[in-house]
Design a protein that fits this description.
six-stranded mixed beta sheet, FAD/NAD(P)-binding domain, single chain, 14 helices, 20% strand, binds flavin-adenine dinucleotide, alpha+beta, globular
Length: 496
């Protein structure tokens, strides 16, 4: 390709977490001389929620050259070792979806098969016996991983909870230092070339801006991808019926736990996310089963006095029919939304940008390249949809119409096949590139009380007996690490 065919100018519409993340990642990765402009409206604010991440976010900080401790300090962040699910399988019962390793591979067999055999033999193994993240979280403690350590600390992984509004500002400052231009304008529309590609953005004040590549990070508005290009929306509301959230922050009233709490409620679920300076709370619910007023009252009844009036947010589970159309790529809420049950949205922005870099176009915009990008990201979205759906479908709750309805949903074939395989043999075969590994699926299956009919035949009584000493050492290693670790709160000083 000739130099003249290279993408030289990029316009990013939207200055929320997605817009500034995309700007920082692109300016780091693209050749010097690529001009990147972020356009953010002074009239339309960012959504201001999105406080929980998953472990690859830590890798992103390294990619961006951000000092993690500085990021934690500046954004009121706390550490997250996983999610505690309360009342999901049945009322009064908890289960963990922790990060990090679980036991160890013994004789080439994934450890969860040994766990299943221990459970089948009535040994009542706990997840936290073999997961350092779950054990630390249960104890309200934290430590950093040590890749060189011989014990369980080598496999520890963690993510962050942070103040969403502050993170967008942090990234804006970083992007500015890296040479990204910022324009405060409201995009009213765009002109299009004869081939349908976007030619230039039209601002409300009458100005315009042209670029080679446009990135739509305008939130649920989808200013370019939907309002200009009309790509259409694939609605997954029949599978994931939660379509509202009411969110409110409260003062801290107890030690900050190193995990997100997700508690199942009558018409959805409630989150609690500890930050250094406050707690984030919200109730994600189905408007077909609960009114906004009832959801808001219910949340306030649970959390006490909020620091500001609760906010209602509306969404539809699903995605744009095309995430990349012509010379426009949608990222973040502009590309679609899957409810925040597993904190995947910000990670999807990051994966979207890395995917864009892997498919970075020239000005010919090869259609096959665009199709490959769309295919990969849509597969990833379907995978996450299935994973979220399992949480609902597998619940043992039948005490409210919402739970009876979600348990009766007709499953997509992809999920039905996964469940069938697991129910038969306990096997979970992850596919390359999937965000959630076999371990994540195992935690949800096991937590919901879904047990396989048969055990891995390669772990017979003899193999299991042989593994006993190794399993004992793993338990001891986890227990020793927990005993030696410090309270999570002690990483942030007083405040609770
Ligand atoms: C209830 C809820 C809870 C969530 N929790 C999590 C979580 O725990 N973890 C997680 O990873 N994600 C979570 N998310 C998702 C997360 O909030 C978003 O993925 C993330 O904040 C990125 O948002 P965004 O930048 O795409 O959109 P926004 O924050 O909405 O930003 C849109 C930007 O576009 C600009 N804009 C809009 N229209 C125009 C225009 N016409 N002209 C110029 N600029 C314009 C606005 O000014 C704004 O800057 C949650 C979402 C919801 C709804």
């Amino acid at each position: 390709m000739s130099e003249s065919g290279c993408i030289r100018t990029i316009a990013i519409v939207g200055g929320g977490t997605a817009g500034w993340l995309a700007a920082c990642m692109l300016v780091r990765a693209l050749p010097a001389g690529t001009a990147i402009t972020v356009i953010e409206s002074g009239q339309i604010g960012p959504i201001g929620v999105g406080e929980a991440t998953i472990p690859p976010f830590i890798d992103l900080l390294r990619f961006l050259g951000i000092d993690e401790r500085e990021f934690v300090r500046a954004n009121g962040a706390t550490y997250k070792l996983g999610i505690l699910y309360r009342d999901w399988s049945r009322l009064g019962r908890d289960y963990w979806h922790p990060f990090g390793t679980f036991g160890a591979t013994i004789g080439r067999r994934p450890f969860h098969h040994y766990w299943q055999r221990a459970a089948a033999q009535g040994l009542a193994p706990g997840i936290a016996d073999y997961s350092l993240c779950a054990a630390l979280a249960e104890a309200g403690k934290f430590r950093f991983p040590d890749p060189r350590a011989p014990g369980a600390a080598a496999g520890l992984r963690y993510a962050l909870h942070f103040d969403a509004a502050s993170v967008a500002g942090f990234l804006r400052v970083l992007a500015g230092k890296l040479g990204v231009q910022r324009l405060e304008r409201t995009v009213a529309s765009a002109t299009r070339r004869a081939d349908g590609f976007i030619e230039s953005l039209l601002f409300e004040d009458g100005g315009r801006l042209g670029a080679d590549l446009y990135i739509d990070c305008s939130g649920f508005h989808g200013v370019l991808i939907e309002q200009v290009l009309g790509t259409g929306y694939v609605d997954w509301g029949d599978l994931l019926p939660c379509d509202r959230a009411v969110a409110a922050a409260t003062a801290l009233c107890a030690a900050r736990p190193p995990y997100t709490l997700s508690r199942a409620r009558a018409a959805g679920w409630q989150w609690r996310i500890p930050l250094q300076h406050r707690a984030g709370n919200g109730y994600v619910y189905s408007s077909a089963h609960l009114s906004d007023t009832a959801a808001s009252d219910d949340l306030l009844g649970q959390i006490g006095a909020p620091l500001a009036p609760p906010r209602i947010l509306r969404f539809t589970a699903g995605h744009r029919r095309r995430l990349w159309s012509g010379n426009c790529v949608a990222l973040g809420l502009a590309s679609g939304f899957l409810e925040p049950l597993e904190s995947t949205s910000i990670q999807l922005v990051i994966n979207g940008v890395f995917n864009l870099l892997d498919h970075f176009p020239d000005r010919a915009f090869d259609p096959a390249n665009i199709e490959a990008y769309n295919r990969e990201l849509l597969e990833e979205l379907a995978h996450i949809r299935d994973f979220l759906l399992l949480h609902y479908w597998g619940s043992g709750r039948d005490d409210a119409p919402f739970w009876r309805d979600v348990r009766a949903v007709r499953l997509p074939d992809s999920l039905a096949q996964r469940i069938e395989l697991y129910r038969g043999t306990g096997r979970i075969r992850p596919r390359p590139g999937e965000l959630f590994t076999d371990l994540s699926w195992f935690y949800i299956f096991a937590g919901l009380g879904i047990r396989p009919a048969a055990l891995d035949p390669l772990i017979d009584a003899r193999a299991f007996a042989h593994a006993q000493a190794a399993m004992q050492r793993l338990r001891q290693s986890v227990a020793a690490e927990v005993a030696a670790a410090h309270a999570h709160d002690s990483f942030f000083g007083a405040g609770a």
